[in-house]
Write a structure and sequence with these properties.
The chain is built from 6 helices and 43 strands. With about 650 residues, the protein is mainly β. Strands 33, 34, 35, 36, 37, 39, 40, 41 and 42 form a 9-stranded mixed sheet that branches. Strands 3, 5, 7, 8, 10, 11 and 13 form a 7-stranded mixed sheet that branches. Strand 10 and strand 11 form a beta hairpin. The N and C termini lie far apart (about 70 Å). The N terminus is likely disordered.
Length: about 650
């Protein structure tokens, strides 16, 4: 090797070749260093992922500023996942002064790794692209998402901004990954702007305000609350509005986790945390979080928009927001060596009251702490191992979440225990793992269970006994994760739903339509009710069920009816896919546009659309609903 190098350096010609080879070899290293710098900046900002612009076609040349020639130019948009798994994305890019977007095309990774297109368009001058991979494949790394073709005028300068971005992950605690949204500054026909000195966005007539804050405790099972565990991640969404003349601005949000009075911009350096958020005319939702104190007590958190006073505003009196919260319990103490602690969660009504004998119920628990690892975990019912246990690590906290189907067994008291190896884990929280199965006891008089008896719908003929699971409610998951119900809403705002039964004869012709209702059963986590089939001729019929906002579902098997028959026909449980907001029995861009309109509270969102856009029926239209819609897209048409 040494002789080879000497032979190359022996002549001026060979020396030139060697220098050229070194330059060529250094190009990939330069790209790698640039991407690593981007990753470091992203981590410093506290975001889980980061978008960035790149010149040309691909992700090899990250840029924060550039110079456009007059006429056609091309830029690329890429995503650094920072080792997180991404399953869907929805991105809107806004042009700046003197620039017009003419086309948006899928990048190589968007085309090859995300197999379902939600939409791709230039709408109101903005470039929009959304795709999803419903299969749940592991997609991570640096991803080439989109190539934008633009037309630049003869001169000028401005900023291209990412006005809206949702990054979805099945493995994320909330389903949504936070994302850094950069701005690309540019000049037309002149030298490139300095990447190290961002050009301030003109802000004439800007009036920033906080219109809403949604607070929750983050983790494997995020929930709206103002009562937090010591050291827990206090997080949520902030809706920032620009009531002035600017189309959208990126600003600093200062966070004080315990303060008595409102902060001012002169005190920005005292903030416990500072993050970037966006403000738009219709209000833009951004994610924030901070660690709760470890000392129990009552606290007041303050949020301050434009905390660094970088943007001149016409009104600063509406830039603050505060909320009170409580840190509960005792301070965190180290877990004793050789022990583990778990918390039972929801579990489809298994722990909420007497359950039906010999019936399967989902049982879910999460890891709170363990000093003996988590590689040999098992669930045991009355001392016997439960099969089919599935565990998934949370991408944010790393905590394990496990679920299995448990048979309620015979009448009496039963106990579920989690073991790591031979060590039994201590339960914490509201449930100890004990549950009761209903049935006769030693007392001759039977006890009444808490399960309500469905009221038959008035009408002749047999009654069809419906048992319907609605996705992301109660004991039902979603299309991306059917058996994981920890994030499902256990207390739907609309516990009674109208149900339509469509009846078809053996020739496939519709033989009738029947209407009734189903009511949420908190013990089983599904909706139940009876619908009268009326008068039908003897024969075999197929049946479809429809509930507003859900795709129509055909029963897995036909029913047989005899003329004059009465009584009840029992059918298997069916689970319905949510997201059909416009009622055309399909999940499409039309539904998604309505959902985003209601998310942004625009005039397109009617009262009816607002009700149906709350996909998990928790009373809020937020990123959880957007995430759920994307997770449902593996099924896009009803039966």
């Amino acid at each position: 090797m040494i002789n080879f190098i000497k032979s190359i350096l022996s002549s001026r010609k060979n020396l030139g070749i060697a220098v050229l080879l070194i330059i060529i070899a250094a190009i990939p290293l330069t790209v790698l260093v640039t991407q690593k710098q981007q990753e470091i900046r992203q981590r410093a900002a506290g975001e889980q992922t980061s978008l960035f612009f790149s010149s040309g076609d691909g992700c090899s040349s990250p840029i924060t500023s550039t110079s456009f020639a007059a006429g056609q130019n091309i830029i690329s948009l890429c995503l650094n996942t920072n080792s997180n798994t991404v399953n869907a994305f929805d991105i809107t890019v806004s042009p700046g002064n003197g620039v017009t977007f003419t086309a948006i095309d899928e990048g190589a990774d968007a085309s090859n790794k995300f197999n379902t297109l939600v939409f791709k368009s230039i709408t109101n001058g903005k470039a929009q692209l959304a795709k999803v991979d419903p299969s749940g494949s592991i997609i991570s790394g640096t991803l080439f998402l989109a190539k934008i073709t633009l037309n630049a005028g003869s001169s000028g300068s401005g900023n291209i901004s990412i006005s809206d971005a949702t990054i979805n992950s099945i493995t994320s605690a909330t389903g949504i990954l936070s994302v850094e949204k950069p701005t690309l500054s540019y000049t037309i026909g002149g030298p490139s702007a300095s990447a190290s000195t961002p050009t301030p966005t003109p802000a004439s007539g800007v009036d920033l305000s906080i219109s809403n804050v949604y607070v929750q405790q983050e983790g494997p099972y995020p929930k709206p609350t103002t009562d937090f565990d010591p050291g827990a991640r206090v997080g949520g969404e902030i809706t920032a509005e620009d009531n002035g003349t600017a189309e959208g601005v990126k600003i600093k949000l200062g966070i004080w986790k315990n303060r008595g009075i409102a902060p001012t911009t002169n005190e920005a350096s005292t903030a416990d945390r500072t993050v970037d958020v966006w403000a738009t005319g219709n209000g833009y939702n951004s994610i924030f979080f901070f660690p709760a104190p470890t000392t129990p007590g009552n606290y007041k958190a303050w949020l301050l928009l434009n905390s660094d006073n970088a943007i001149s505003e016409t009104n600063i009196s509406n830039n603050t927001f505060s909320f009170d919260y409580t840190v509960k319990g005792a301070t965190i103490t180290p877990t004793p060596a050789g022990s583990c602690t778990v918390e039972w969660r929801f579990s489809g009504g298994l722990f909420s009251g007497p359950v039906t004998p010999n019936k399967s119920y989902p049982a879910t628990f999460r890891e709170v702490s363990s000093t003996i690892g988590w590689s040999n975990v098992g669930m045991f019912l009355d001392g016997s191992a439960v099969s089919g246990l599935s565990c998934t690590p949370n991408s944010v906290t790393g905590a394990m979440s496990c679920t299995a189907s448990v048979n309620s067994d015979s009448a009496g008291s039963h106990t579920l225990v989690v073991k790591v190896g031979t060590t039994s884990c201590t339960p914490t929280g509201t449930s100890t793992g004990n549950f009761t199965t209903s049935g006769p006891t030693s007392t001759p008089t039977p006890t009444r269970t808490s399960t309500p008896t469905p009221t038959p719908t008035q009408g002749g003929g047999p009654q069809l006994s419906l048992r319907i699971g609605l996705h992301s409610i109660g004991s039902v998951g979603d299309n991306a994760a059917p058996t994981l119900t920890g994030g499902s809403n256990q207390n739907p705002r609309r516990p009674t739903r109208s149900a339509t039964v469509l009846i078809f004869n053996s020739s496939g012709n519709q033989a009738g339509t029947r209407n009734g209702s189903v009511t949420y059963n908190s013990s089983s986590g599904v909706f139940t009710g009876n619908v009268s089939l009326g008068s039908l001729s003897s024969g075999t019929y197929s049946v479809k069920v429809k509930i507003d906002g859900y795709l129509v579902k055909r029963l897995p098997s036909s029913i047989t009816v005899t003329a004059g028959q009465t009584g009840t026909i029992e059918i298997p449980q069916i689970n319905l896919t949510v997201g059909d907001i416009n009622g055309d029995n399909a999940l499409s861009i039309l539904d998604y546009n309505i959902l985003k309109a209601c998310f942004n509270n625009t005039s397109v969102c009617t009262t009816a659309y607002k009700t149906l856009s709350d996909l998990n029926d928790d009373g809020n239209i937020n990123t959880q609903d957007i995430s759920l819609f994307l997770r449902e897209l593996s099924v896009q048409a009803g039966d």
